[in-house]
From TrEMBL:
Annotated source species: [Kitasatospora] papulosa
Main subcellular location: cytoplasm
Keywords attached to this entry: Cytoplasm, Heme biosynthesis, Iron, Lyase, Metal-binding, Porphyrin biosynthesis
Catalysed conversion reaction: Fe-coproporphyrin III + 2 H(+) = coproporphyrin III + Fe(2+)
Subcellular location: Cytoplasm
Family of the protein in this entry: Belongs to the ferrochelatase family.
Amino acids binding Fe-coproporphyrin III: S59, Y128
UniProt-listed SUPFAM superfamilies: Chelatase (SSF53800)
InterPro entries for the chain: Ferrochelatase, Ferrochelatase_C, Ferrochelatase_N
Gene label: cpfC
Signal sequence residues: none
Protein name according to UniProt: Coproporphyrin III ferrochelatase
Keyword presence, Cytoplasm: yes
Positions that bind Fe(2+): H191, E286
Length: 374
């Protein structure tokens, strides 16, 4: 019998995230890193900078990742899985290249990567793969060994991601005044992206209206609504809506925006809304500002009771899911039969992004996919 705890061929796990500022002096250089060559209007950057300054220049994302690192190490230790866990970011310290350099210096050559983005899309998948390729090239240029990096599959439909969100929505419903609770709508929110990116998200066969990005979020919304109904006996009406739009106004992005949605629901006489940020793995500035500040103020202004449900963050069930994803992939790499764990109608996502998955505007090398140069 094979050992179910055997992580071979992997010798380390890399938690790969976005990164965020940790004080006022970090904000402008962080935004410069994020928007390098991305054509985001100056006005939008000033606006987003203000969001960060409102919170002392501190994004919650790094603290969330530190907590997740702890949760992963604890879960691995509790399950006899001896695998070191490292952390690196695309846009702020600890920077991905520095972490990968440390990993190869520590002797690691076959690295599993968990990105803190659960869904397909250029911004949520290929852009992380491009950053991995850039960092591997940097190591190569320094004459260091280039490790093999494998990105773990999208986990939007993994029970360890879904169940904490179900609990979050149930807690938010319970927190609403009793007289409006039963009639509450669920507004599932995610990051708006250009419709052109959504339509080409995921493998070529899913390209079309909304692509994998929208289909995956709809599956998650249905799974959560179904689980909530099982618990409460109430079929809460729901809709997938968007937040945090940027880019030039003439370029179409996914709509409707959460604030417009709240107004429309209020106009229709809906008594209350739970906003569930399913597009975000943990609390980010988008959750603190766009939902907890802006959308909550809009709701107060129109007299609509709202609650924002918790993100998954460092929930121990999510840490366990990461272990399962890693061991599942290890087994597949060893050629052992595995049944990947997934809820919903879409099934488990691919291990290796095929050529043409979430294409970029300009072709750049991307690691950990069928088109990887490494
Ligand atoms: C799909 C998606 C995710 C989810 C997947 C994932 O988690 O990766 C995500 C996450 C995040 N986005 C973040 C921050 C920003 N994103 C920006 C810009 C953009 N995001 C986009 C999409 C996404 N973004 C897009 C299409 C743009 C436009 C231009 C471009 O294509 O680049 C900008 C520039 C200003 C602005 O336009 O808002 C900022 C500052 C932070 C950190 C937050 C914190 O500090 O807590 C996080 C986790
Ligand atoms: Fe973003």
């Amino acid at each position: 019998m094979s050992d179910l705890r055997d992580p071979a061929p992997y010798d380390a796990l890399l938690l790969l995230s976005f990164g965020g500022p940790e004080g006022p002096d970090d904000v402008v250089p962080f935004l410069a890193n994020v928007t390098r060559g991305r054509g985001i209007p100056e006005e939008r950057l000033k606006e987003v900078g203000k969001h960060y300054f409102l919170f002392g220049g501190v994004s919650p994302i790094n603290a969330q990742n530190r907590a997740l690192l702890e949760a992963l190490r604890e879960d691995f230790a509790d399950h006899g899985l001896e695998l070191p866990v490292y952390w690196g970011n695309r846009n702020w310290a600890p920077y991905l290249t520095d972490t990968l350099r440390e990993m190869v210096t520590d002797g690691h050559r076959r690295i599993a990567v968990l990105a803190t983005s659960a869904y397909a899309s250029y911004s949520g998948c290929r852009q992380y793969r491009e950053n991995l390729a850039e960092s591997l090239s940097a190591l190569e240029a320094e004459g260091l060994p280039v490790p093999r990096v494998d990105k773990l599959r999208h986990y939007f439909n993994h029970p360890g991601f879904i169940r904490p969100m179900v609990d979050g929505v149930l807690a938010s419903l319970a927190d609403l005044p009793e007289d409006v609770r039963a009639g509450a709508h669920l507004a599932f929110t995610t990051h708006s992206i250009p419709t052109a990116s959504a339509d080409t998200s995921g493998p070529a066969e899913t390209h079309g209206d909304g692509g994998s990005y929208v289909a995956e979020h709809l599956d998650v919304a249905r799974l959560i609504t179904d689980a909530v109904r099982e618990e409460t006996g109430i079929d809460h009406p729901w809709q997938l809506v968007y937040q945090s739009r940027s880019g030039a106004p003439h370029i179409p992005w996914l709509e409707p925006d959460i604030c417009d949605h709240l107004e429309a629901l209020h106009g229709d006489g809906v008594p209350a809304v739970v906003m569930a940020p399913i597009g975000f793995v943990s609390d980010h500035m988008e959750v603190l500002y766009d939902l907890d500040t802006e959308a909550t103020a809009k709701a107060a202004e129109i007299g609509l009771p709202v609650r924002r449900s918790a993100t998954v963050g460092a929930d121990p069930r999510f840490a366990a899911a990461v272990r399962e994803l890693l061991l599942e992939r290890a087994a597949a790499e060893q050629g052992r039969p595995v049944t990947p764990c997934a809820l919903g109608t879409l099934g488990a996502s691919h291990d290796l992004c095929p050529v043409g998955c979430c294409p970029a505007r300009a072709l750049k090398p991307a690691a950990a996919g069928a088109d990887s140069p490494f």
